[in-house]
Design a protein that fits this description.
Elements lengths: L47 E8 L2 H12 L2 E5 L8 E6 L2 E8 L13 E7 L3 H10 L3 E9 L3 E7 L5 E7 L14 E8 L2 H12 L2 E4 L9 E5 L2 E8 L7 E7 L3 H10 L3 E9 L2 E7 L5 E5 L3 H5 L2
Parallel strand pairs: 1-4, 5-8, 9-12, 13-16
Antiparallel strand pairs: 1-5, 2-3, 3-4, 6-7, 7-8, 9-13, 10-11, 11-12, 14-15, 15-16
């Protein structure tokens, strides 16, 4: 909540390189668009500037997010969803990407899809070295992705999936997301204190107690004078994961629209972080949160 944690843009697609995508990607190399509509040559280390939906059914996901949030889509590649890259737009502004990811062979695997976020860093290789030395794993080593820049994909010591990027064109402008755009992101972890220490070294964050102002649980990761992400204690049965938030005008109405469109409710609307929020799961299995963000809510921060 604060100033643009997840900036609009097409998001990193790394099919075949995550725990929900154990098989190689179907296409040899998808088109990797830059993360800005126009070059900025400005970078904000520590910001989550990119993200991607890894899913087994791009078409179903696009239909869902289109119905619930009014997103529109641009697809690059052939008609086969397994070989394309899909960019999601809100009000004409790119806000995310979708890519086909093969499921695990283990049919008991619960997480069929997920959103993955990328952190802007100065040096991708240095971040990879740090992750390995800090108990995390390098899932995709640093590599140049077409016009996008250099990126890498990791898991933290608890298995949370995330990535880093050094954009070839610079980071998008720092701004607070509008309705139906990204608002916030937080890690739900077994040991928030240890995870805060781990992520502090990924991008030189300042760590502040409390996931939000006035809260005692969790931590904030701050850079450039802004809160970029939160870290919260999770319930024991929930895997460690990064949870993205979409800003909405009315949480109750959004929850109703999401269920009507085939999504399900993971957490009913409640007051948290000084505002109303809920956790949903899209029809392909990817969890995300929705939250209102009014002037009163901003004052609570």
């Amino acid at each position: 909540m604060h100033k643009c944690t997840w900036r609009a843009g097409a998001l990193l697609a790394l099919a075949g390189l995550t725990s929900v995508a154990a098989s190689p990607p179907v296409s040899a190399e998808p088109y990797w668009p830059p993360i800005t509509q126009a070059p900025t040559d400005v970078r904000s280390p520590g910001r989550f500037v990119w993200g991607e939906l890894l899913t087994r059914d791009v078409g179903a996901a696009a239909e869902f997010y289109g119905k619930v949030f009014g997103w529109t889509f641009e697809t690059y590649g052939p008609e086969d969803d397994r070989m394309t890259y899909t960019v999601a737009l809100s009000g004409g502004t790119p806000i995310g990407g979708m890519v086909y990811a093969s499921p695990q062979k283990d049919k008991k695997a619960a997480r069929a899809a997920r959103w993955v976020g990328l952190i802007s860093v100065v040096d991708v290789q240095a971040a990879a070295d740090y992750v390995e030395s800090g108990g995390g794993k390098v899932i995709m080593p640093p590599r140049v992705l077409g016009e996008r820049g250099t990126a890498a994909l990791f898991t933290d010591p608890e298995g949370g999936l995330f990535g880093v990027i050094h954009s070839a064109s610079g980071d998008p402008e720092d701004y607070l997301g509008d309705d139906n755009q990204w608002l916030w992101i937080e890690l739900w972890a077994t040991d928030p204190s240890k995870m805060a220490s781990f992520y502090q070294g990924v991008a030189g964050y300042d760590v502040v107690d409390g996931a939000s102002r006035g809260e005692s649980a969790g931590y904030q990761l701050r850079s450039g004078g802004y809160a970029r992400a939160g870290i919260m204690p999770k319930q024991s049965r929930v895997p460690t994961t990064w949870l993205p938030y979409i800003r909405v005008r009315n949480v109750a109405e959004t929850v109703a629209a999401a269920t009507a469109a085939g999504g399900r409710i993971m957490m009913q609307p409640r007051q948290m972080h000084g505002t109303s929020m809920a956790i949903l799961v899209d029809p392909t299995g990817a969890p995300f949160a929705v939250a209102e963000w009014t002037g009163r809510a901003r004052e609570a921060k």
